[in-house]
């Protein structure tokens, strides 16, 4: 049971990250490596704020804004300094490493005895008895859904339409008299804001910050997006945002399954890879390939 | 059709795995039989030695794997997320104890067991206080205790002084993100003056930077000493190569490094550390003590390791007593 909860918790936390990756990778067609830096950035900001005694609830919007700022920098480097997309992400990711260390204070910061969004007087009063073991997963679910519906709503606004248009056909955007560079910057800001929000929740769930949590974050995000979108592309009642979050939960389920299989302690990654391949093969449209 | 079959197979396996996982949650402990979940953070020679030592320590106390002990071993392959999931997995299986090897595994195990009564025994944690696992006086913060692999800085400096009577500077390369390295560097800087040394440090952030750092370092120092820094130790051969080119010796921090070509080390024997941990675990399992009442332990006496081949390569004559004093000595450089 704890493992299923763990899969759901981690899956949904990384689901928010995957939403960010979905914006850059699928909508903007921008391979954004900033994610490896903005995920721990959100976590670093969070542990710093919590250590300073800031109420845990406030860390969520602050981490989002911090991440948005980071995304904006990536956007500015790409659009204004005309650095190639992949490289602007690499520049930011590299620089953020040091900034994250400064922000957090060291490579590892525990917040075991501090109050977090999962562990404070209000929450503990609300979830008592049998419910208390589900409090983390419920809170994560609420935040993830809030992030999903806000993003859905944003996508239906004028600014959201422009965002989608930039990825599909940017001449349309230009012909509408809108600066496509600006739209890209906005997209990257929202994407990295979501990623940092995900890092913020992760740090509080794990009650610690660790500098290496960002390594490979973008890969997890991409895998989630691809699993989600390819597995559910024919399921019409699910919005893409929901598919992406489910994709992330499936990703973590694969890791958990690999762990359960328990063939060899060192085989986790190989088994995970095989499970991905299975999912991708199952969801592939055979006729098209032939 | 094929697709349907695959889909079905997949669903069934997933469901089966999840269900059996829960079904077995009883954790099978009849009278006098135990289940321990070992969560090891990375694939790493020292950590592997720790794990083997841990099992050996338990065996000495009569808790033998395969007889009255069931061991579930998961290696997180250096991914914090996987380490967290490993710990949750053990909690859901209701193991009798989690053994966490290395800091990230220890902190995730502590986090996962906060709402259960499963004790956690950690090992190879350099700074339990800094990691939030122990109070400043060494007492435990919860149902968790273990052993610490802090380096014997003074013993190491004394040994370097013996081997190199004229040396003035010691170089240390460390990873800026590893909290244990930062605290050890501070200890070296504090103690170096007592032995007439000056410490020169270079921080790196990734393995790829080690060769640059080493090439620069060897020009500035009389010798290099290693920490238990995971990144730098993984790139040990790069450091040794640069040092050999410049003709300066490298001192290690534990046996594996000496085996691989460091001249000598007053270091930890991770197998012994694991064994000590195993004995603590046995006390907790048998109900003789509670993890929350045990202070974390360190290895009291560092052991001397010498590599005569590496010394010869650097043109060093080691004190004669080293041949007999060494806990373990090597006559060749073994690069694995």
Give a short summary of the structure.
The complex is a heterodimer of chains A (290) and B (336). By secondary structure, chain A is mostly helical. Chain A is built from 13 helices and 2 strands, in the order ααααβαααααβαααα.
Task: Chart the SSEs and their pairings.
The complex is a heterodimer of chains A (290) and B (336).
Chain A: H1 2-27, H2 35-51, H3 56-79, H4 85-104, E1 108-110, H5 121-126, H6 135-155, H7 158-168, H8 170-175, H9 180-206, E2 208-210, H10 217-231, H11 240-261, H12 268-283, H13 286-289
Antiparallel strand pairs in A: 1-2
Helix pairs in contact in A: 1-6, 1-9, 1-10, 1-11, 2-3, 2-4, 2-9, 3-4, 3-9, 7-9, 10-11, 10-12, 11-12
Chain B: H1 2-23, E1 34-40, H2 45-60, E2 69-75, H3 80-92, E3 97-101, H4 103-113, E4 120-125, E5 144-148, H5 153-163, E6 169-175, H6 179-192, E7 198-204, H7 210-217, E8 223-225, H8 230-234, H9 236-246, E9 250-251, H10 255-259, E10 264-267, H11 270-285, E11 297-298, E12 303-307, H12 308-313, H13 322-325, E13 328-330
Parallel strand pairs in B: 1-2, 1-3, 3-4, 4-5, 5-11, 6-7, 6-8, 8-9, 12-13
Antiparallel strand pairs in B: 10-12
Helix pairs in contact in B: 2-11, 3-4, 7-9
